[in-house]
Design goal:
103 residues; mainly beta
Amino acid sequence: ASRTLWYGRDGLGRRSLVRMEGADAAAGCSTLRLCSVAVPLPASAGGEWEELPACGIGCVRLLPDGTASHLWLPRRASLPPPPPAAATLLALSQRETPPTRSE
């Protein structure tokens, strides 16, 4: 087992993902909260929700000593934009169509 949690937001941006990093003084550790729907928390919660971008992936790895490392890896390669609808329609209309048989 890799003891790793990978998380990310919907690449098309239809769904949001928020995170909150903070510290739990009583437990003496740091916290990471992930949520797709968030409500405001009291100041005692130790942080504010931050919306994650749709262009990356997060990783939380639990280490053998019980601590965790957290990384956010931004997407390096961007996707090409889709062709304009007019150009697509023009390309489709210029395709050869088989002759139809008339009766």
